[in-house]
């Protein structure tokens, strides 16, 4: 029987096998190179320092947008979930922003603010906040009213109540919003960079797209995918297990 810890690696190995097969059937490295054909351009970009520079630029934008989107989304979702009146007022706004395409927000931010970092991060943040808000709002609605009653009986102040009563119950919803948020945010950041930045993975993909260099497009795309997989496995999954451990106690 396969060790469960090996399953993700075997899954990735299966995906690589499909890539090798597809590249073999295509028989054109300009269309789809073999995985090993990416090694030389990857090492070249690594030695030049360009790969680290552009990965770092994209990662910083992801961190800023993720932090802002999670902070605003959690606060707004909790408020809407706890206050039916506030939810009635803001729900139409939420529906509008949920259905507003990311491309429209990006273009508008660039037109209104300019081709700068503020516009780039704001566009990504505004696109993700409604999704986080929706998830957290449902979590706030599912809070146990008996625990609220207990907090009132013991006259807990709002900080203590938030820390020991509300947030532990919201933890699974926050974890779900965070994991989906990272996956969506970095993709939108690439679009932002593709359209209006002079650094980052998206900018490099735009550059090599114009040169019809499939290998370099794949080098930059998979380099950042590896970074995000590392974030998922090393940070997000252990954090999710930690904050939801009380449910399995």
Could you describe the 3D structure shown?
This protein is an all-alpha fold. The protein contains 10 helices and no strands. α3 packs across α8, α8 packs parallel to α9 and α9 runs antiparallel to α10. The longest helix has 39 residues. It starts with 6 loop residues before the first helix and ends in a 6-residue tail after the last helix.
Oligomeric state of the chains in view: single chain
Kindly estimate the percentage of residues that lie in beta strands according to DSSP.
under 5%
User: Which structural class fits the helix and strand makeup?
Assistant: mainly alpha
Please trace the helix and strand order, writing H or E for each element: HHHHHHHHHH
| CATH level-four homologous superfamily name | MetI-like
Describe the largest sheet. Answer: none
The average pLDDT value, as a whole number, equals 83
Helix content: over 70%
Domain unit count? 1
Count of runs of 4 or more consecutive helical residues: 10
CATH architecture: Orthogonal Bundle
CATH class: Mainly Alpha
| Topology, number of strands | 0
Q: Which spans of ≥5 residues are poorly predicted at pLDDT below 50?
A: none
The global form is globular
Q: How much is the radius of gyration in Å?
A: 22 Å
- Rounded to the nearest angstrom, the distance between the terminal CA atoms is 28 Å
CATH fold category name: MetI-like fold
Give descriptors for this structure.
MetI-like fold, 249 residues, mainly alpha, globular
Task: Provide a short characterization of the protein structure.
This protein is mainly alpha-helical. The protein has helices spanning 7-26, 39-48, 50-82, 84-98, 102-113, 117-141, 145-153, 158-196, 201-210, 214-243.
């Amino acid at each position: 029987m396969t060790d469960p810890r090996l399953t993700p690696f075997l899954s990735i190995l299966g995906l690589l096998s499909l890539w090798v097969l597809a590249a073999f059937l295509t028989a054109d490295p300009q269309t789809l190179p073999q995985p090993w054909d990416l090694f030389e351009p990857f090492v070249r970009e690594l030695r030049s320092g360009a790969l680290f520079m552009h990965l770092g630029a994209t990662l910083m934008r992801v961190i800023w947008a993720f932090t802002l989107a999670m902070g605003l989304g959690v606060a707004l979702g909790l408020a809407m979930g706890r206050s039916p009146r506030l939810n009635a007022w803001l729900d139409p706004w939420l529906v509008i922003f949920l259905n507003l395409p990311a491309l429209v927000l990006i273009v508008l931010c660039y037109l209104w603010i300019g081709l700068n970092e503020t516009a780039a991060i704001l566009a990504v943040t505004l696109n993700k906040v409604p999704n986080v808000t929706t998830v957290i709002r449902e979590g706030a609605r599912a809070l146990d009213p008996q625990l609220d009653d207990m907090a009132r009986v013991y006259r807990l102040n709002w900080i203590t109540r938030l820390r020991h009563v509300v947030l532990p119950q919201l933890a699974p919803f926050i974890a779900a919003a965070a994991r989906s948020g990272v996956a969506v945010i970095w993709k939108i950041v690439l679009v932002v960079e593709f359209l209006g930045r002079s650094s980052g993975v998206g900018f490099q993909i735009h550059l090599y797209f114009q040169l019809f260099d499939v290998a370099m497009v794949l080098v930059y795309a998979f380099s950042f995918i590896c970074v995000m997989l590392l974030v998922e496995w090393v940070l997000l999954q252990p954090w999710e297990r930690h904050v939801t451990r009380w449910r399995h106690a």
